[in-house]
Design brief:
single chain, 3-stranded mixed β-sheet
Length: 399
């Protein structure tokens, strides 16, 4: 077995970003030892996560979700020492990040909360931006490794803070791409060349890094994954959950989550999240439309799954296969007649007492629930859009 040295760096997770970061570290002069749950043909691919820890003191982890991160930490076993710095580069939200940090520290090692921004091209060009939370001692040890594949490192604060900021930035990206898709649809269906719209955006205050990256992809109908829809959907769920804990409404983000749900039901999970524009494109090679709308039915009779609660118990995996969406009855039928016993009074003008329909009986303290993804709030976990969406897809993290 090779000897451990200060030039050794471990990397776990050889997806779109991790594989390119590993190449960037090699270009930066490091001896890189890698491991992936699915074996890959890569230089210095070792047999286990534990072996990575035996060879390297600094280890970057690029995995898809909290469950995968906890599996890796468990696989390290007792190989971690006080000289180890574990750098969590996954976007898993603050609660799962804090739990991972606890597990690492309990074994005597150090932990950095270091999610990144930048997609495939940025990773390939060694121009990622790392958001870093954690203690100075751990950061000083890891800084040369992070610098090798980045154009900037932003110190955020304590562990968990960087994870929160990363989720917040992804909220902006998700809603911006959905708005770009809608604006594109208006221009195209008005008979205007969408490329003229692209030129107009270049000279508008509405221009952003996301519009520069994604609008051309939409125009070219090029949805090769740089940041997959399934991963952005997972990050939007994290945002909604954080908002629930803070009693903040996120109407735009929650609406975007509903649209992403529809894209997942159409089989777009592994495409770039700019594929949301495909809903407005009539193309012969488009996937067939889903048989049902992406509404999320309320499931009030179901009790919370203990695995969905934050804490030491590993969360549901983002990589788990998605259960099929509920199918609607395809048989045509007459529109159902209104049932006065279950109708809700209009919000704008409350009905008069003598004409008010009877509301369904609800537990004390709960608000009426909508079958569509609604604004985030502080309801019980089983009624939040985050948890309802997560039940259907099995893509949530520990929080």
């Amino acid at each position: 077995m090779p000897k451990k040295s200060r030039k050794n760096v471990g990397l776990i997770g050889l997806g779109i970003i991790g594989s390119r970061v590993a190449n960037g570290l090699r270009q930066g002069g490091f001896h890189v030892y890698v491991w992936n749950r699915t074996p890959r043909a890569a230089p210095n691919f070792v047999g286990s996560a534990r072996q990575v820890a035996e060879l390297c003191d600094i280890i970057q982890i690029f995995v898809a979700d909290a469950q995968a991160l906890f599996d890796v930490l468990e696989a390290f076993g007792d190989s971690l020492t006080p000289s180890h710095v574990i750098i969590c580069n996954a976007t898993i939200g603050p609660e799962a990040t804090l739990e991972a940090a606890r597990l690492v520290r309990d074994r005597g090692a150090q932990f950095l909360d270091a999610p990144f921004t930048g997609s495939k091209v940025a990773a390939q060009d060694r121009e990622l931006v790392y958001y870093v939370g954690g203690e100075d001692k751990a950061f000083e040890a890891a800084e040369p490794v992070l610098k090798a594949t980045s154009k900037a490192i932003v110190r955020i604060g304590k562990i968990g803070d960087a994870a929160t900021v990363k989720v917040a930035t992804n909220m902006i990206a998700a809603v911006t791409v959905q708005t770009l898709a809608e604006a594109y649809a208006i221009v195209k269906d008005s008979g205007i060349d969408p490329r003229t719209f692209s030129e107009a955006i270049k000279h508008s205050a509405a221009r952003s890094g996301i519009s520069d990256l994604k609008l051309q992809k939409i125009l070219d109908r090029d949805y090769e994954p740089h940041f997959s829809l399934k991963h952005m959907f997972k990050d939007v769920q994290l945002a909604i959950h954080i908002a629930n804990t803070l009693d903040i409404d996120l109407p735009a983000t929650t609406a975007a989550a509903g649209v992403m749900y529809g894209g997942l039901t159409k089989g777009w999970a592994d495409l770039d999240f700019s594929v949301l524009a495909r809903a407005y494109q009539k193309e012969p090679d488009a996937l067939p439309p889903a048989s049902t709308a992406p509404a999320i039915p309320a499931r009030t009779e179901e009790k919370p799954n203990p695995e969905e609660k934050a804490g030491p118990t590993p969360p549901a995996s983002a990589g788990a296969p998605a259960p099929e969406a509920p199918k609607a009855d395809t048989a045509k039928a007459e529109p159902p007649k209104a049932d006065p016993s279950s109708a809700q009074p209009p919000r704008q003008e409350p009905a008069k007492p003598e004409a008010a329909p009877e509301k369904p009986v609800e537990p004390a303290g709960e608000k009426p629930k909508s079958p569509e993804p609604g604004p985030a709030n502080n309801q019980a976990a089983e009624h939040t859009p985050f948890v309802r969406l997560r039940r259907w897809f099995g893509t949530g993290a520990s929080n």
